[in-house]
Amino acid sequence: MVNIPDAVCIYIPLMKDLGMSWSEIKSTSRKELEGILSAFSEYNKIHSFDGYTDKDVNEMAKNNPEIRSKYGTYKEANRKLEERLGRRRKVKGFKELLGK
Questions:
Q1: What is d(CA 13, CA 32) in angstroms, rounded to the nearest whole number?
Q2: Quick one: pLDDT band at residue 15, thresholds 50, 70, 90?
Q3: Of 39, 48, 55, 83, which has the fewest beta carbons less than 10 angstroms from its beta carbon?
């Protein structure tokens, strides 16, 4: 495994994407910084395809097939969020619906 410097994985995204200053980064613990980046990554995943329909994604996937897997990740993340928020109940399996 390649050892990537902290500047690439932590400091640059915090400064560029979240607008944190160097003094804010220095005064925050590493664990908190990793938590902020993790939350930011999850936020990006959940909102990456907002505004697109299944039809739009199918059209884009004709030219770039990897979009379909990214869209699947987006749908899965949103489904998990909806379940955690209690907006959607877990779908029962066929055997559970029959009462077996």
A1: 14
A2: confident
A3: 55
